[in-house]
Specification:
The complex is a heterodimer. By secondary structure, chain A is mainly α. Chain A contains 8 helices and 3 strands. Chain A has a domain of 83 residues: Cytochrome c-like domain (Cytochrome Bc1 Complex, Chain D, domain 2, Orthogonal Bundle). In chain A, strands 1-2 form a two-stranded antiparallel sheet. Chain A starts with 15 loop residues before the first strand and ends in a 6-residue tail after the last helix. The chains are: A mainly alpha, B alpha+beta.
Chain lengths: 289, 513
């Protein structure tokens, strides 16, 4: 043991620690002992915490801690609690007739809120997070529907999908690729007529001959006036909304090679609650009928 | 490095037994204690009628409902700038008081000081004054000591529970909560909060006391930056008090002074060293430079004995001093008894020290308090206060906020018209349900289309916000439909009272893509 000898600072009379750097001395103003104990206490607490809770990172996981706590398990419990609390309203939604569901019914709000989540998880990849669609993927916000925009029609589309091979009840239609049996001039004429139908700039002479082509080849699905047919998902050619583009080039391409948009059937992958929920959500986006 | 080691780096807390004192500052402190504690304990029980839909508690922080009620004022979460403004004012107010009067906050109004004072009062009541408490402290654990300690702790605990209990009443209806608490029916968080605050009050007020001020509180460090040589703070008139002495020593000093008056004897030094005050030569700090004439301090230690932090103010200003001014009262009492003028220990500015040593009178309190610095703080403080008052009186009872939906920016409808969507929030601060009318202005081509509502009327519940998706449609080929973007203004009108409010937003047209 070193001999304990205390020095005192001549000016203040305070005891020094004995540390001396280039003549600068360190005064010793003792810390309260409870402060030291508090410090030890935090160390003990820290050790206890490391033993009780997940703490030390290993290569592929962390030490579990003997309390077996995990945030994941906690969140699972919380989700289960919420689900249990919503069980009644979910059951109501699953068996509800959507068309007559009141807007102030809790099941309606539950559906719209839950539907938004379902939409983001399963639909937004094609239709976009804002449901505005993209080229070839319908915009669900507008007032134009290929296969119908009522709650029942939307639910059927969600459940069975469109032009897929997996669901026998999928909505189905197939436009021929007219490039295989129409002359290029005929396609050009039909294009001008479609431009005229939608009120765009067109060549009037070509359009007049295109009218004949249209009446012979197109009107059976798109109807004589070009207003389309929801039975076959044939688009309305007179409005301002174009799934694959409405300019001369895009229309020529559509006539020549046709289009074949596919949507999977969600019936096998979503349950009744989810289907009804996402139907309600899509219907209230601004275009529902 | 020297080879010596200090005796110890840690020291146990020295128990402090402040003596009872009376005087103007002590009375002021009693008054402040009574008023602040009264405000704290009683405020939750004041009722204030706001009508059937709103709580009738005058001061209520409704966390679940996200409202703060203060008598006739109701603050919504989006008006939190009131709280921010009040906090800033509290901060600047603290700066102001510190630069003018030192640590008055610490000495008079800080909860740590007030509750410690209250606990000391209880302690003194149960165990007696300083000497009795010191005897009790030194004595072994006799039956009497156990009884007195238990009584004291019981009373402290009751005060602590009341303190923790009062806190939770600010967050819920006090009468209901009290009933629930007693019936063991209240929310666990209420009991938990009470337990924590009971514990902190008991430990901090009963056992930690000055340790909180010296070692835990950041304010003593910050305050140093706000004080200057004009700040009035508790200090000892060293030039008047030294050399101190009592009894025989005093007589001896007086005799020696008489002798040295005849033969100007050699100067006597060798006093124990102490920290000199800034700018003062310690040699000049004596009433009689020769050190023969005894000073006014009779070294009775009254100032030390009353000090709640256990320091000697005669050592100069120090970090531990909370400027409670009790030593002033104690010393004034002694001065009165020995027939000397009061104020050996006094509120004093450093700049006055020089003047007084030179035999000049000190400046008046107002000259110290009214300085550019304090005037600047006061101005700033008042400006913020006025701004908050203005905001308080002009804020409307109804309110509208509009968040344009930006994914997508617009939707083309089948007839070629352009539709924008907006998420509108309508606030109704009235205590009753009100129908609101929404309108748009900006361009004649705008058509309002409110989802789920046939008319343009939206019912908004009492003291609540209604969330409404609103569509604005511009017909095909109209100006806004073709434009990149265009300003649009949403008006909301309370159909009952006719109050109106608006919010501007933007309408995106076709070319804006
Ligand atoms: S020295 Fe002690 S008694 Fe005097 S003001 Fe400071 S804290 Fe109070
Ligand atoms: S109370 Fe006054 S006279 Fe007594 S020791 Fe303190 S300063 Fe000196």
């Amino acid at each position: 043991m070193m001999e304990s000898r205390t020095d005192h600072d001549p000016v203040t009379g305070t005891e020094t620690t004995g540390h001396n750097w280039d003549g600068i001395q360190e005064l010793n103003t003792p810390l309260p002992r409870w402060w030291l104990w508090t410090f030890y206490l935090t160390i003990i607490w820290g050790i206890g915490y490391c033993i009780a809770y997940p703490a030390w990172p290993l290569i592929d996981r962390a030490t579990a801690g003997f309390l077996g706590y995990s945030t994941r398990a906690e969140v699972e419990v919380q989700i289960a609690e919420v689900d249990a609390r919503n069980a009644d309203v979910a059951a109501r939604l699953a068996s509800a007739d959507l068309a007559t569901l009141e807007r102030d019914d809790p099941a309606y709000h539950y559906g719209v809120a839950g539907g938004a989540a379902v939409f983001r998880a399963h639909c937004s990849q094609c239709h976009g997070a804002g449901a505005a669609g993209a080229l070839g993927y319908p915009n669900l916000l507008d007032d134009d529907w290929l296969w119908g925009g009522t709650l029942d029609a939307i639910a059927a589309t969600v459940r069975h999908g469109i032009r897929n091979d997996t669901d026998d009840d999928a909505r189905w239609s197939e436009m021929p690729a007219y490039g295989e049996f129409l002359e290029a001039e005929q396609i050009a004429a039909a294009t001008e007529f479609v431009l005229q139908l939608s009120g765009q700039a067109h060549d009037a002479q070509l359009a007049a001959s295109g009218a004949t082509v249209f009446a012979g080849e197109c009107a059976s699905c798109h109807m004589e006036a070009g207003t389309g047919d929801r039975e076959t998902g044939a688009p309305d050619l007179t409005d301002a909304i174009w799934l694959y583009g409405g300019d001369r080039e895009a229309i020529t391409e559509s006539i020549t090679n046709s289009r074949f948009g596919v949507m999977p059937a969600w019936g096998p992958r979503l349950d009744e609650v989810e289907i009804n929920a996402v139907t309600l959500y899509v219907h209230q986006l601004g275009g529902g009928e | 490095m020297s080879d010596s080691e200090p005796t110890t780096l840690y020291a146990a807390r020295e128990p402090i037994f402040p003596r009872r004192v009376s005087g103007p500052f002590r009375s002021l402190k009693w008054w402040i204690m009574g008023v602040t504690l009264g405000i704290y304990y009683l405020t939750p029980w004041i009722r204030w009628d706001r009508g059937p839909n709103l709580p009738d508690q005058a001061v209520l922080i409704d966390l679940a409902g996200r409202r703060f009620y203060f008598f006739w004022i109701e603050i919504w979460p989006h008006e939190l700038y009131f709280v921010a403004g009040l906090l800033i004012m509290a901060g600047i107010g603290l700066f102001l008081f510190t630069s003018a009067l030192g640590r008055v906050w610490c000495g008079y109004a800080c909860p740590q000081t007030v509750w410690t004072d209250l606990f000391l009062l209880v302690e003194r009541w149960i165990e007696g004054d300083r000497n009795a408490r010191m005897r009790l402290w030194k004595s072994g654990w006799t039956l009497r000591k156990v009884r007195l300690s238990l009584t004291k702790w019981m009373l402290w605990l009751l005060i602590s529970i009341a303190t923790g209990g009062a806190w939770v009443f600010y967050y819920a209806d006090a009468t209901t909560l009290l009933r629930d608490l007693i019936a063991l029916d209240a929310a666990p968080v209420a009991y938990f909060t009470i337990m924590i605050l009971t514990g902190t009050t008991f430990v901090l007020g009963g056992f930690m006391r000055e340790q909180v001020c010296i070692y835990m509180c950041p304010w003593p460090r910050i305050q140093a930056a706000m004080m200057d040589e004009e700040t009035l703070t508790v200090a000892y008139r060293e030039w008047r008090g030294e050399p101190r002495g009592k009894g025989t020593k005093r007589r001896a000093l007086a005799e020696r002074a008489a002798a040295s008056a005849q033969a100007a004897g050699p100067r006597i030094g060798g006093r124990s060293p102490r920290i000199p005050m800034p700018g003062i030569d310690p040699a000049a700090s004596q009433a009689d430079p020769a050190g023969n004439e005894p000073g006014d301090c009779i070294d009775c230690n009254a100032c030390v004995n009353v000090c709640p932090v256990g320091i000697d103010i005669r050592d100069g200003q120090q970090l531990a001093c909370i400027t409670c001014a009790l030593c002033i009262d104690a010393c004034d009492d002694v001065m009165a008894r020995i027939g000397k003028p009061r104020g050996l220990i006094d509120y004093l500015a450093f700049s006055d020290e020089k003047r007084e040593r030179a035999g000049q009178p000190s400046l008046s309190v107002w000259r110290h308090v009214l300085r550019p610095r304090t005037v600047a703080y006061t101005t700033l403080w008042s400006l913020i206060g006025l701004a908050l008052l203005y905001a308080l009186f002009v804020r409307p009872e109804i309110d509208i906020t509009v968040a344009p939906v930006r994914n997508p920016q617009f939707v083309v409808l089948s007839d070629g018209s352009i539709r924008n969507a907006y998420d509108v929030r309508l606030r109704n601060k009235h205590g009753e349900d009100r129908p609101f009318r929404i309108q748009v202005a900006g361009d004649a081509a705008f058509r309002l289309d409110i989802e789920g509502v046939d008319a343009t009327q939206v019912p908004v519940p009492a003291d609540d916000t209604a969330h409404q998706r609103v569509y604005v449609v511009a017909s095909a080929n109209s100006d806004p439909a073709l434009a990149d973007s265009m300003g649009i203004r949403f008006w909301v009108e309370d159909i009952v009272s006719g109050e109106r409010a608006y919010q501007d937003s933007v309408f995106n047209g076709r070319t804006g893509q």
